[in-house]
Structure formats: C-alpha cells, structure tokens
Recover the amino acids of this structure.
C-alpha cells in the first residue's frame, strides 16, 4: 500500500520504519521539507534530528503534507495532538477524501507542565474532532495507548498485549487491523464507533503515571478475560 | 482487623464478604439501617435487596455510617462516587481520623445517560477531594479499576492481572497492599501520591467501552512489562 506518515518526530520515524518493514511504500509528510532536513538539533525529548534518521532510510521520501496525502492510499497521523487539525488542514481535505486515516495522536496539553492533561476528553475526543472536521475521511483511532517502539514491534514484550480500534467505518477498521496484525499485535479489540476514542485517549493519564512508577514506557496493557 | 464497609450495594456486599473470608471482623455502614433492611425491591442494576444478602451473612452487622466508622481500624468506601463526600461526612471526621480509608469509588456522572462521564477528572480526582476534605484520614485509592467480583477474587480470571494503589501515606498503602494480596492480587503497582488517582479514575471510560465490546465486565488489565 502507498502510505503517508504525517509527522517527522520519533513516533513518525518509528511508524514509517515499521511500515516499510511490512513491505509498504512509505512517504513522510512535513510542513516544510527543507526546514525539517535543515534542523540539526535534538528534539525536546533528546531524539536526534530527522535528517540523521532520514539519511539511514533513503527509501522513504520526505515531502509536504499535501503531496504525501495526495499520493497515499492510507495515512497515519503521527504528530502532536495539538497540531493534528492544522496538519490535516495543510494536507488538504480533498487529498484525504475517501482515505483511511489512522489517528495515533493524543490530545496532550503540556501547558501546565508534566504530567500533561488532555485538551479534550470525556464528552468529546480528538478522534471525533478529526472525523467531524474531515467527514469524507475514514478515521480509525488506534495505537495511541502504547509507546512507539511497541506499536510496531509488540514482540519486544514477553507476552501478547492488547491494542484497540475505534471508528465508524468497518472496512477501514479491518484494513487497520490487518496492519496491526502485521506488526505482531495478536489482540485487537474493536471498541465501536469513533466516539469510543474517548476511552483510549483517557487511558493516557494512567499510562503516564504507570510509566512514572515503572520508570519505563516499555509496557502495554493486556485485557485479560 | 475491624473493618467498616460503607455502602450496601452490590460492591459493598462483595467487598464485605471478601473481607470476612480473609478473617476480618466486618461491619457494614449505611445511612439508615432500618430503611436499608426494609427495602424489598431490586436496585437499578437488578441486584437483590440488601436484606436478602444480609440474611445469608448474619455475622456481618449493619449499622450507621458513624457507628461503623467509630468501631473500625480501616474503612472501605464502597458507595456511589457522587455520594462519597456526604457518606464520609455522615461517618464523622473524628471517627475517620488517623484511619486508613480505601476509596474504591469512581466519580461517575450518569446525568446524561450511559456511558457515564466523570464529574471530576484530569486536574483533580475524587480520591484527592476525599483526602482534602478529611486531612486526618489516610486515603488510599485502589480497586476502582475492576468489577467487584474480581476485586475480591482475581483468580476467577485465568491469569494474574494488575491493580493499583495511590496515596500519600506509605504505611497505609502497605496495609492495603496486604489486603489486596490476601484477595489474591499478585501485581500491585504503587503509582505514588493520592493525585495519581487521576490516572486510575480516568481508566473508567475505557473500562466501560471495553465492557461494551466484550459483553462482560469480567476482565481486568494486566500491565505487561
């Protein structure tokens, strides 16, 4: 499949690399490709600049959000939740129409420091806001409940764990589930419509505090039943 | 230990029964014992009236919140989250002073129907509100992340799962962890201070939607790491 990953941070890099390993043709979208490649500083989390990762992955083109979206069959929104709607607007509603968009972002608000709060929650969700803003796009919320390395390689844990899908389009969820299975996820729970993204987005506060208690983000939940 | 369970609903009954099986001396507290015993109708969830359960558990006395609290070494708040502060006020601040209070309630707001939202979240929690209102009480938030039957008997699932404790008093958390271990919980994660109750309370929206997807509440999460 031709897949566009929107977002050049650590999550975008990890997802893009994982999709290439599954045999997909992957393009990474960014606001300004030249500016992204010119950056030499590490990000706020200490990750190396995109250019260094990109040099080691020369099969993956870097282009604008709009060009990436125009050529893609499926998109992954791997940006900062606060920038999600602006990134998709830049990608262009027509370029997104009819396509599956996997929203792996979280509505994190760091304005009051760490741990962040959620800028939308409980009676709405970022997944729903994206679906409402781009009604012709087939939004599937998934993978926002675990750290990037485990999104694409859950076998790094000794035991199979759980991921979730939320969305209004059953065929889109089936497509996403196939990708998840390709990554190695053995337990994918379909929560229902996109409004069930409220559930997975609201896991983040517990995820953050569990990371604090364990001293690592290399964990995931398994729904035992 | 002398334990008071505040709340006569299905959760209170299950917790009281579980604590008796561990060898504790248990009293159940309610607003008006005579009225509680006089009720003959099932509750909103179809559970039989308290009197029927009580007749089968005659070793467990029913008394007022205040009397239950006065005689207890440790209390379990097993009521409706919306009634939590009123129940504790009725129990009496002096009767609660210095004691461990296990808060297993959730701040559920059913006013807009099902699934409920949370009436406090993200920048505050019910656990914190209780600790702030009763500063001399040693509040430990726990067990609010799973269904009552599994709180006291996690072995009903084929696999060991995870429960959490949040609280400002390390000795109180150790006491509660001992009870949890007695129930059969093999993985108790100490999240930190009472403010980490924001995390476990905000799991509820995902818990409710997972219950919807699975068609059962007989599940629990395991933190795989």
């Amino acid at each position: 499949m031709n897949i566009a990953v929107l977002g050049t941070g650590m999550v975008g890099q990890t997802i893009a690399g994982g999709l290439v390993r599954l045999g997909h043709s992957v393009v990474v979208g960014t606001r300004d490709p030249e500016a992204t490649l010119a950056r030499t500083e590490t990000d706020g989390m200490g990750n190396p600049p995109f250019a260094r990762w990109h040099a080691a992955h020369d099969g993956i083109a870097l282009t604008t959000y709009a060009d990436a979206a125009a050529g893609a069959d499926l998109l992954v929104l791997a940006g900062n939740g606060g920038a999600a709607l602006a990134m998709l607007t830049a990608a262009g509603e027509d370029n997104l129409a009819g396509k599956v968009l996997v929203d792996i972002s979280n509505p994190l608000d760091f304005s009051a420091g760490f741990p962040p709060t959620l800028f939308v929650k409980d009676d709405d969700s970022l997944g729903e806001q994206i679906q409402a803003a781009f009604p012709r796009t087939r939004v599937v919320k998934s993978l926002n409940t675990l750290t990037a390395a485990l999104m694409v390689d859950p076998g790094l844990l000794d035991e199979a764990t759980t991921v979730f899908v939320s969305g209004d389009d059953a065929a889109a969820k089936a497509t996403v589930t196939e990708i998840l299975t390709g990554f190695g996820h053995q337990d994918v729970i379909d929560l229902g419509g996109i409004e069930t993204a409220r559930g997975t987005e609201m896991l983040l506060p517990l995820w953050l505090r569990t990371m604090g208690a364990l001293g690592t983000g290399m964990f995931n939940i398994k729904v035992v039943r």
Observations:
- The mean pLDDT of chain A is 97.
- Chain A is about 40% helix and 20% strand.
- The two ends of chain A are 34 Å apart (CA to CA).
